[in-house]
Amino acid sequence: MIRSTFIVLILAAGFQLGAALLPVDPNAFFTVPGKPLRLKFKGSAGNAAPQAGLTAFSGQKYGTVRLVPLGGEFVFERKEGLPASYYTLTVDGAKFGLLVQEAYPGEPDFFFGIDCFFSWNEITHSEMYEALKLLRRYGVAAVRDRFEWSAIQKDPRVYLFRNRYDENRRLYPRTGVRLLDVHHGAPDWAHPNLPRFPEQLQAASVFWMTLGANWSSCWNAVETWNEPEGGFGANLPADQMMPGAKAMRYGLYHAAPAVKLGAAGFTSIAPSGNYHRTAAKNGLLDNADFVSFHTYGDAESLITLTRQYREWLAANGKSGMPLRLTEVSRVAWDNFRTGEESLKIAAELAMQAAVGRAVGLEQLYFFAYYELKEGNKTFGFLAPDRTPRLSFAAFLQSVRRLGHTRYAGKLRTGNRMIRSARVYTGDRGCVTVLETAGGGTFAPPYPVCRVEGLDGRVIAGNADGSVPLLDPVVYLLSDTVPEELLDTGTPENRLAALAGLPAPDRTPPSPLVLFPHPDFQAISRYSSAGGYTIAAGTPVPVGLDIWNLSAEAQEAELSVDTGLMLVAGEAAQSVIVPPCGKKRLDFTVMMPEGAAAPLDLDFTVESAAGTDRASLAFRPLGAVQRLEVPRGGMAQVGFGGLENWQIRIKDQPWNSRADLDAAFRLSYTDEALTLTVEVEDDRHFCSFPPAEMWKGDSVQIGLQAGKPKSLAERAKFTEYTIGLTPEGGKAWRTGSRSGNNPEQNLRDVPLQIVRRGTLTRYTLTLTAHELGLRAFRPGDSMRLALVVNDNDGAGRKGYLHWADGIGVNKNPEEFNTIVLK
After folding, report:
1. What is the pLDDT of residues 332-365, one digit of tens each?
2. What is the C-alpha separation between 321 and 288, in angstroms, rounded?
């Protein structure tokens, strides 16, 4: 999931959030079967003795009782205890989750983890300690956390280890939980020119040596970055991320050699694209112990994504490199708005765990522990009041039943009510995970010892020996499953076999690190996915820093290999790089006239101490769409069909052009630019406040006017969202959109939105002053991207787009270009 900002809502016990009563101690809502219940609430109740009703996940009701007032609190008591299951306690109209589950038996399986980002949450040291103990009790002994370099070394001369980051990390070994830490960003002094990625490599390597010496006992592994091909990587190509990753590995290798290094917390994009290709050419896989990636898709799509990663690793000679899924989850739209959605998400998470185990991942980390909201998306195993959601019960059931098992194959059921039946074996017997269509029964062709539901409760079998398929995920426990009943040639079996190959040998890192610095003023546009786009015949200076991270001078040979025209700089030369310093070499390249395909610029430096490589991907400007806009207006431009449709909700696909179609035209005068978008949509729905109109039927416009002179300016743009709400047409402007807190406001601009039948016509006029210009003149160019959102009343199902850079990433480098004529 690509996130440019974390918006975390964590509530201390007793804090008011709509509900009149809240738990005094949320930890009491995690208990074991048979233990008497004593749950306390405080706050203002609707009456002197509020009522509480208890309902099991199965639907069984345990009656209604009145809470007992006691010392300013209200107490719910049940002396009999409860069997294992997930429960909902309704108190004075508010609902609270209750998890009743046995502690995990024996040593935990470190395969299962949670991305908790404890250090970024507003929780106390003691609250984090209790949370880690609770997770460990239920068999979750792997946690992903985050930290900022600037919190340790804001000033290059001073290290500050007396802070929450250091205190929190000391808790992991105390509680027996393995920590996967994530490196987020560098202090300003470390990247004077680039956004985010460190440029001062000597300082970076020393920082990681120092950090490794202090935290090696706390770490199991560290990821070099988080989602570098997205906003966290400032949409820069991979060649700008890799030098800092190499400095990181050099420092950790010498100070904390037992700590594993992961590359690089990728988003869910397929590794067949340019970013992964360039990252590999820049030595990503030679400087990592495992590859990590994220997905928020359904469980079956994880099979395809894992296969693509295995193919990518094989193509780069790293077939057996371990894979870790360090963020996995499913999105809850609008805060778990229905019980049906909560059930669906819990089932999907259970299946993600089952498939992740089957395809041979080394670890997977579910996102997230506490609630986190991003727009209209909600994540989190715990509700804001810190009581458990059903998804947490489903996850812990996966931990209990799939811990210390291996995938054996698929059971052939012949039952149309069963979508899949995966079998896992371990020292405690066999577990068959049934993914069901809901309802019906199944007669297992082998003896079953026990049947459990999605939440871990026992499901009683029928008198005829069949199993009622009450839940979307059902677990069958047995001593064995006859091998002849299994299909052992599934894609999951093949992927698990690849995961069993020997991991690549770990080689010492090179002290020489190449850092290329292309002149961004000579580059037409850049992006993480596309590399550098340049015009044919335009000289592009590229400075190359050769860093020496060791304390000894290094003699080396540098070579250049490229299909570009090398117009300045030597293709082969000998260099001496001073200790703990760098040597700068300058080159100039040009795109040949008529070039149609991307071309790489490859550098290699070799010395007795090691070899390093850097590679930059260039593509010709002709691959970028340019649109000429005559003063009197242009012909209508269509958005296209399925090739320009992005699905946001999988079960609501684009059906036809009657469902959604769009076209636009532009015109201008000296004073103003006018955009008209015509949208054909069979159902219009935009009942949202202006700041959230993008969730409904609306148009988003990204514009970058003028001529930005720096990388920081190139990242800025203005975005308008226009929509026809029940209160009329509205325009919402997000200005200077490059940081975490852009200026946002309702804009009074000339806007007309008219809907007749199924056609909605949007007309927006933007003055030159509105865009920070003096006037619009022939020859002026600007960048533009358009998105037409579709919502038929059940969520933002998707959008049509003209150019990228708005719908997923906010990146003006992916916009198209318009030229005024």
Report:
1. 655 556 788 889 999 999 999 999 999 999 999 9
2. 9
Helix axes 491-499, 299-315, angle to 10 degrees: 40
CA 649 to chain CA centroid, Å, is 16
Q: Classify residue 483 as left (phi > 0), alpha (psi -120 to 50) or beta.
A: alpha
Kindly report the backbone phi and psi dihedral angles of residue 215, in degrees, each rounded to the nearest multiple of 5, phi listed first.
-115, 5
Report DSSP state, residue 458.
B
Phi, psi angle pair for 701, to nearest 5°: -120, 120
Q: Under a CB-based contact definition with an 8 Å cutoff, are residues 484 and 400 in contact?
A: no
At position 144, the amino acid (one-letter code) is R
Rounded CA gap, 627 and 560, in Å?
36
What is the pLDDT confidence band of residue 658, given thresholds at 50, 70 and 90? low
State both tokens at 798: 């998707």
pLDDT at 807 over 90: no
Which residues 6+ apart lie within 8 Å of 327 measured at CB?
Answer: 1, 115, 144, 265, 294, 295, 296, 365, 367
Instruction: Supply the pLDDT for residue 3.
Output: 44
Read off the tokens for 321: 């490199």
- Compute CA distances 682 → 174, 639, 655, 790, whole Å: 59, 17, 11, 10
Burial (CB count <10 Å: 0-12, 13-18, 19+), residue 740: exposed
C-alpha closest to that of 711 among 518, 516, 520: 520
Distance in angstroms (rounded) separating the CA atoms of residues 256 and 263: 17
> What does the DSSP assignment read for 356-386?
HHHTT-SEEEEE-SS-EEETTEEE-SB-TTS
The DSSP letter of residue 795 is S
Supply the DSSP symbol for 813: G
Is 767:671 a contact under the CB 8 Å cutoff? yes
Distance of CA 753 to the CA centre of its chain: 35
The torsion angles phi and psi of 431, rounded to 5 degrees, stand at -130, 125
User: Cβ(493)–Cβ(500) under 8 Å?
Assistant: no
Q: What pLDDT does 14 receive? A: 36
Cα-Cα end-to-end distance for the chain: 40
Give the span between the Cα atoms of 151 and 677, in whole angstroms: 47
Q: What is the mean pLDDT of residues 201-216?
A: 96
816: helix, strand or coil:
strand
686-722 per-position pLDDT tens digit: 999 898 899 899 999 999 998 887 887 888 899 999 9
pLDDT bracket for residue 33 (50, 70, 90): very high
For the record, the structure tokens of 717 come out as 């743009």
pLDDT digits (tens, 9 = 90+) for 63-122: 889 898 888 889 999 999 999 999 999 998 899 999 999 999 999 999 999 999 898 888
> How many CA atoms lie within 13 Å of 442's alpha carbon, on the beta-carbon side?
33
What CA–CA distance (Å, rounded) separates 17 from 611? Answer: 57
Residue type (1 letter), 67: L
Contact 168, 128 (CB under 8 A): yes
Those residues whose C-beta lies under 8 Å from the C-beta of residue 7, and which sit 6 or more positions away, are 372, 373, 374
* Alpha carbons 149 and 204: distance in angstroms, whole number: 10
Count of Cβ atoms closer than 10 Å to residue 769 Cβ: 11
Residues recorded for the chain: 821
The model's pTM: 0.86
Q: 781-791 and 698-704: which strand pairing?
A: antiparallel
DSSP state of 536: B
Would you say 626 and 816 are in contact if contact means Cβ atoms under 8 Å apart?
yes
Closest residue by Cα to residue 142 from 326, 315, 311: 326
Instruction: Name the residue type at position 770.
Output: E
Work out the angle at residue 225's Cα, subtended by the Cα atoms of residues 221 and 228, and round it to the nearest 5 degrees.
150
Contact predicate 395/381, CB 8 Å: yes
User: Which one, of 163, 258, 264, lies nearest residue 219 by Cα?
Assistant: 258
Single out the residue of 450, 308, 454, 439 nearest to residue 390, CA to CA. Answer: 454
